[in-house]
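Question (not urgent): is this output format expected?
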Amino acid sequence: MLHTSAARHRVASTRRSGRGGRKPASARRGWPGRSITSVVLLAFVVFFDLPLVWLLLAITKSGRALTQQNPLSFGSLHGLVANWHQLMRFQHGAFARWLFNSALYAGSALVLTLVLAIPAGYAMALTTFKGRRTLVVVTLVVMLIPNTALVLPVFLEMSVAGLVDNPLSVVLPYSFYPFGVYLAYIYFSTSIPRSLLEAARIDGAGEFQVFARIALPLAMPIVALVGFFSFVQNWNNYFLPFVMLQTSNKYPIQLGLTTFRASSPTLALATALAVVPMLVVFLFSQRYLVTGLTAGGRTG
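Got this back:
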C-alpha cells in the first residue's frame, strides 16, 4: 500500500508540472519578459527612492558631514536634534510662520474651491441652461492653459484691486480650479442616476435641495478627489506666491525654503517637514481617492 501511494503521488506531480517535471513552454517563454520587467521596475524604484533616502539621512548630519561623508551614511540623533533647534531658531521662528501661511492659503483656497467647483460641475452636468455647452468647452480650454501663462494677467488684476502682497492675492487665484470643475462635471454626468433626481423634483424638491440632499451625499468621492488635488497643487505652488508676495513674513513654505543655504541639513529637515501635511491629507483621504478616480468609468 505504501508503494502504491508513492506511485500515485509521483503520477499526480508529473501531471501538474508537465511531462518529465518540466515547466510548460509558455512559462519558459514568459520568463525573459518577466525578468526584464522586474529589472526595469527595480531601476525605477532605486531612481525615485534614493533621493528620499538621502533626504532622510541628511537631516541627521552636520553641515560638514553632509558634504564630506558618504551620502547614504547615518549621522546621529544628536545631529538631528541640533538641526531641529537650528531650524526653529531660523529668522526668529520663520519656519513655523511659513508653515502656518501655507496651511492658511491652501486651506482657505480648498474651501472656496469645493464651494465653487462642485456646484458648477453639477450645474453643467445635470441642468439645462443657455450656453451650457460653450461653458463646458471654455472650462476645458482654460484647464489646458499652463498656470504660469496666467500669472501675469492675474498679477495685473490684483495690482488694480490693490491686493498685491496681500494673502488674498494668493488665495483667490488658488480658488480658481477649472480642473476640479471638469472632474465634478464628469462624475455627475456618469455616476448619478438622473431618474433619482427627477423623482426628487417630482416630490417637490427644489434644485438646491436636490443638489444638497441627494447629489452631494452621493458625490463624496469626487469631493475628496477634487479637494486632494487642489490642496496638493496649492501647497506646492511656488511661482504665484513668488510674484504676488513681497514680505517674507507672508511667504508660504515653498517660497520660504529658498531662503535657506543650499547643502544645509537644516534645508533638508525643512523640506522633509514640508511634505508631512500632504502625507497626512493623503492618509485621511486615500479611502475616497480610488473611488473618485474610478467613478467616472461607471455609468449610472
